[in-house]
Specification:
single chain, Arc Repressor Mutant, subunit A, mainly alpha, about 210 residues, elongated, 10 helices
Length: about 210
Amino acid sequence: MNHTLRTKEKIFQAALSEFNVKGYTGTSIREIATAAEMNVSTISYYFKGKHGLLKFAFISFFEPYIHILEDCLLKYERDSATICLKNAIIQLMDYQYRHFELARFVWREVSIDSQIVRETMTTYFRKERYLFQTIIDKGIKNGEFNKVPIGIIMTQLKGIMTMPFLNSIYTSEVWNIYYQERFYLKKYKEQIIHWIDFYLSNKKVEAV
């Protein structure tokens, strides 16, 4: 990693840490500079301010996220829709686990109405909707999935997928469940698979 990439990564990680503790609006650019052990002008040079850091966080998270969905759709296009969906969910959960702090911050921020969130919805969320809908429509067409209102089933599924990251304080403080630990993530993924089999699948199909 060259000097420029190291500097950007150090700034971004410092910002992410501050954002997760104080929230995006509650964090000043000076606090980020202090945490990164750099001056404000350096942050402005690389990210053009705090808004640039937020945009960078969204891009850093959603580009690989969408790529995982696209790759699963391509890789498992000849397999059953159930296998495709389950593999996509497992890989997305693993991706979020590997980038836990980033996932936690991004899902929290996209719950707040703002211009950048609306831009994100126009780009990444529309792609996500298309990819998930393609998988589920295939499953309904070939008889694997029950005919369900796709909007409702997807909001339920998305809620399940984001809960451990969006509400990590709740799960750890109230239930003593720490999804940062692979054991709990493994159990959680198993429950998502059971949810798909119970609520969505029309019949039992091959395991992942």
